[in-house]
Amino acid sequence: MNASYRHFGAGLVLLSLLAGVSCQEEYLPIEAAIEIPEAPKETLCSVKDHGAVGDGDTYDTAAIQAAIDDCAKHPEGGVVIFEENGRYHSAQIVVKNGVRLRLPKTTTLLAGIKREDYPKIYDDWYFILFSECTNCGIEGEGRVDGQGSLWVYGGTAEQKAVTNWDDASCTMPKQCRPHLIGVKASSLVTIEGMELYDAVHWTVHIEHSETVAVNNCNIWGDPLIPNSAGIVIDGSKRVYLGENTISTADNAITVRTPQASHGMELLLVDGGILQSRSSAIQIGHESRAMFSSLAFQNISIVQSHRGIAVALRDEGSMEGLQFTNITVETFFYERAWLGGAEPIHITALPRSVNTEVGTISDVRFQNVTCTAEAGIVVAGSVDATIEGLVLENVGIELVQQTDYAGGFLDYRPGVRGVVDDVQTSAIFIEFANHISLNTVEVVWGKPARPEWSQALEITPRTVHALHVTELFVHDESAHPHGREDQGGSARATMMAWVRRIENNLRSSNKAFLGLEANAASGVLGRRAASSASVIIIVLVAVVFMVFVVSGIVGHFDMRAKRHARTAEEAKFEKVAQA
Ligand SMILES: *[C@@H]1O[C@H](CO)[C@@H](O)[C@H](O)[C@H]1NC(C)=O
Ligand SMILES: *[C@@H]1O[C@H](CO)[C@@H](O)[C@H](O)[C@H]1NC(C)=O
Ligand SMILES: *[C@@H]1O[C@H](CO)[C@@H](O)[C@H](O)[C@H]1NC(C)=O
User: Rhamnogalacturonase A/B/Epimerase-like pectate lyase domain: from which residue to which, for each copy (predicted)?
Assistant: First the structure.
């Protein structure tokens, strides 16, 4: 049995069970695999037999399409095979029911770049199209090359300028280019082991489909071509992305519901390395229908402008988002690209003054380690508070990596836009209820960026029921707030944080039991051993907050995790150079 199919099976079992457990504590092991019966003998249809040349220049469209039609005639479907070392230049390829394309490692499909290589209507502009296709796929270790470089005609060092077709069917003039692979209104589609290279727009677009897997693919896009995204999933069910390495200018993985009629349900992203000049993972922006049971686990996000973005802007809602065993590295890129070095950025805001906006509820981050130039942002709004957010075993180390200006809060898209000249806190929360921070560590690295401010910042009177257990703050830098207080770094940060909370809540009940004394003896330091714990209870009107701050030995260590990551980074570098 093929290992990747086993993996797919495991993913599907997990997916089907996730729906039921999204609001419980339990997590299912990925090993819960099912046996998939041995596939019957395959019918092979050779493109060479149908006259394909494979010289990289001649259009082989007709031969490839004839091989697909040949295979599609068989009741069991079949596999379209290509020659080793072939370079097949083609206009759009439409895959039919039961057909899989199989490309050997040395084989490349080159996407045509002429307008007449694609259909009349923008909605159908895909190089390889699965449309109402069941039991289809593309597999092998070959390459599908979008030839993005041939679309570039200039631009700046920040962003390349690319050709867009002038076509009445395309309503966004800056995005009138074809996508590489489209899976539309299809089911049981697998994209397996492929190199998907240099797309001039989205690399894989999965739309209104069910049971789709993209496994072990390397997706590489030019880091300076706008909209060259990795995998975009719109309103689909049971989608499994396993062990993909994705490096693209636009988002590596995007999950959306642009149409009210199609919700997004059961997504599992397991394993993989993601890098983007925008967001590595983005859920939303387009959010007109429900998103439920989306799980992301065992993922490394590297060198991205934003790590995990959850953005609700429309009438849809989001429920049951889980992020587990993830490392995130973010830093600033040019302002031309969306993002602001935030490792986690969750926002629920109306798109325009008239928008009815849904709710975000039950979002969990567990075992997530971030190194970032800016902080975690959790921002609901008057119209849409965020309900139920857990950060458990979450570490954030603030590290300066670039000289780009920071100090802004990005509420785009929407009426609030970008708010400039603000300070950056490691964790910023507004308009949110039932928030639990459980074993959260903040490390201020050095040198410090000038805008860095508090470990935890809460907008006054917008956060109800915040539960904090074990928040560790460690200051390695001579950062401005540390210097302010002669008492030393960790303690200074903690005291500044406490003062900030106190001011923000305008507390008249300053029940900070013994905190000052404990802080002075050092229990708030990152590694200090102490059995002392401090409980602060602040009751202000409807605000109920409990803080338990204690020093413990041997809590999870970020540095060890960072070292463990280097092998994965090496793999990523290799792909980036390919
Ligand atoms: C996690 O992902 C990495 C890289 O994608 C992979 O090598 C590793 O085997 C995965 N670990 C588990 C437990 O799935
Ligand atoms: C996270 O990693 C731990 C330790 O490697 C493992 O036991 C756990 O099952 C993983 N959780 C998920 C959801 O992958
Ligand atoms: C988090 O990591 C710990 C230690 O590796 C592991 O025991 C635990 O199962 C993980 N949590 C989840 C939700 O996977």
Answer: 46-88
